């Protein structure tokens, strides 16, 4: 039997309350060595509080933080095998880039020669070779972000914590830095825990996404699973655009569910949460805009959803973003992504189809 590896990080039952306000409630998470984990959620969801408890900046009201098998719950940040990159970078303007990068090593009493060598190594890693003698004010926003990242990497943490580190960058630079973060993380083999409210950023960098809402975990899994098979109504609507169809359970046989919607009756596969449902139960079905096809481009295993009347169209290069009315008397609003060469027109009636395997049953 293969030996099960102990997770690098274990967060057990973390709770944080401020007077009567609960910021985080019963948060559990295991992080493997070399894993890139993203805590994703809207403002106030508790994601930054979790990161702060992991880094030692906030004391949990309950629960434990274990890193490399050791309970570090009571240890201050400087005593933990972690390093943090903040959104505002927190660089020292009176120091050179090299001195900024070596600051954590200086606090660990590493010699000047050794820390300068290490600083130059990590500056090369983040694409700033030859920048060591420059001052912070001589750098662009993206370069400052890389210096902050280099400073955190220099101390060789077991876990690198990133608190919305790309939030201050413009869109093009943010996308570039997302790719570079993944490249650096894979080269280092260090576990990264990254906080963001940007769904696209989360899917671009993560091995695992933890979706948070009101201090609780809504969902966790790979980016593909979270996007294609969300576990809750919140996740389905937070992770990009989605069509949410009110539905009623007509019959259930094992994990096969017959559900009735405004677009028709479908035989779908439900998850574990659906096992206790009884006929007549109210639920929802999620269907992504790109999973709805016009008849001309529908796959063979797609089933008809009826006709949709196009009401609004915006050309976005790779597709037409279309709003439509469907269902009985056009009572259901749908969002579609139509092929760019379709040349649709507002007011046009379009026969639409979808594959049952693309429909996700939501019970909560």
UniProtKB/TrEMBL annotation:
Alphabetical list of PROSITE patterns matching this protein: ABC_TRANSPORTER_1, ABC_TRANSPORTER_2
Any one of the GO BP annotations: putrescine transport
Keyword Transport part of the UniProt annotation: yes
Keywords: ATP-binding, Nucleotide-binding, Transport
GO cellular component: ATP-binding cassette (ABC) transporter complex
Alphabetized GO MF terms: ATP binding; ATP hydrolysis activity; transmembrane transporter activity
Gene3D superfamilies for the chain: 2.40.50.100, P-loop containing nucleotide triphosphate hydrolases
Domain ABC transporter span(s) in chain numbering: 9-239
Name by which UniProt lists this protein: Spermidine/putrescine ABC transporter ATP-binding protein
Organism, scientific name: Hypericibacter terrae
């Amino acid at each position: 039997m293969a030996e099960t590896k102990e997770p690098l990080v274990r967060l057990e039952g973390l709770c944080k309350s401020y007077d009567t306000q609960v910021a985080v409630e019963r948060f559990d998470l295991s992080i493997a060595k070399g894993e890139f984990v993203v805590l994703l959620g809207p403002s106030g969801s508790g994601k930054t509080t979790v990161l702060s408890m992991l880094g030692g900046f906030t004391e949990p009201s309950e629960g434990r933080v274990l890193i490399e098998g050791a309970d570090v719950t009571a240890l201050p940040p400087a005593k933990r095998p972690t390093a943090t990159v903040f959104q505002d970078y927190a660089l020292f303007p009176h120091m050179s880039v090299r001195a900024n990068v070596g600051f954590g090593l200086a606090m660990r009493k590493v010699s000047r020669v050794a820390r300068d060598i290490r600083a130059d190594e990590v500056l090369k890693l983040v694409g700033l070779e030859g920048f060591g003698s420059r001052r912070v004010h001589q750098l662009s926003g993206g370069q400052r972000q890389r210096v902050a990242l280099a400073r955190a990497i220099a101390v060789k943490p077991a876990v690198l914590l990133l608190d919305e580190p790309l939030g201050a960058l413009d869109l093009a630079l943010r996308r570039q830095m997302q790719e570079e973060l993944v490249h650096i993380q894979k080269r280092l083999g260090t576990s990264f825990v990254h906080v963001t409210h940007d769904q696209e950023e989360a899917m671009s960098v993560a091995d695992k996404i933890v979706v948070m809402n009101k201090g609780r975990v809504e969902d966790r899994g790979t980016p593909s699973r979270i996007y294609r098979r969300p576990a809750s109504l919140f996740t389905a609507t937070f992770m990009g655009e989605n069509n949410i169809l009110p539905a009623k359970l007509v019959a259930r046989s094992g994990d096969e569910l017959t559900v009735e919607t405004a677009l028709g009756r479908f035989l779908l596969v439900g998850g574990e949460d659906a096992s206790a449902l009884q006929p007549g139960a109210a639920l929802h079905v999620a269907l992504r805009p790109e999973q709805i096809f016009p008849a001309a481009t529908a796959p063979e295993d797609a089933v008809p959803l009826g006709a949709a009347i196009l009401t609004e169209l915006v050309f976005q290069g790779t597709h037409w973003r279309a709003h439509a009315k469907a269902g009985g008397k056009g009572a259901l609003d749908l969002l579609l992504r139509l092929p760019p060469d379709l040349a649709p027109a507002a007011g046009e009636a379009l026969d639409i189809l979808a594959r049952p395997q693309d429909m996700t049953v939501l019970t909560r």
